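Recall the central idea of this unit: under ordinary conditions, the amino acid sequence of a chain determines the structure it adopts. In this exercise we apply that idea directly, starting from the sequence alone.
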Amino acid sequence: MSRTSRLAAAVAAGAAALLALTACTSGGGDAAGGEGTGAVTEGKLTIATGEPAYAPWVQNDDPESGEGFEAAVAYAVAEELGFADEDVVWVRTSFDAAIAPGPKDFDLNIQQFSVSEERAQAVDFSSPYYETTQAVVAAGGTAAAEATSIADLKDAVIGVASGTTSLTVAEEVIDPTNELQVFNSVDDTVAALQNGTIDALVTDLPGAFYVRDAQLDDGVIVGQLESDEGGDAFAFVLPKDSALTADVTAAVDALREDGTLDELAAEWIADQGAPVLQ
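Accordingly, the structure predicted from this sequence is:
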């Protein structure tokens, strides 16, 4: 996904312009379930996520709890739209079904959808609520796993996948004393970490959680790396030409501008084992 970060940013800007046009033509407003919203259930906001939904995006596969970054963002957007918590209805969809053409059984869908031109032909996107960062993963019990700063990683042997943003960020931010080990894929990089060829790897943050929780027995997310390289932009998916798209974008924009999105990211991502390394 990192290879498309610049394209995603450009598409996100294009989507924002498209949404502005939509707002001008659809009339907007009346988001809280009034007639004409095209909602799945009038008076309710039906939000979909994956099954299962994983941390840090949804805690304990329980989006109704509002715990986890995307669950919390969803309820914050619902509030901006005028829906009480009890008027939010959760349903589950697969990732592929959500972005396929055709009718939907949800008003909004949130499960780390990155914006792309191809997908935008079949569904609407809100403005982005999160931009991925790069993160360092190490095997538990190693010196790299105990690192608390970028300086602590200088002498580590670090692996990255070829042609990714991860490679660029590792070079620029960590600037390790040992030559970066470059592999053909993230899976190859993970294998190198498992067999001890490298001390740590760099990948995007969603991938880092997956590597830690699904691929390693004792993996540790050492931390996130701040960089101007940016990453993939995650946005809500809505049915194509939804009457809610402009309102959802306005809600996301308001939460970004008042700092709510940053606060939720700090609470549910950084404080859940992915601190920002300095």
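Residues 1-30 have pLDDT under 50 and may be disordered.
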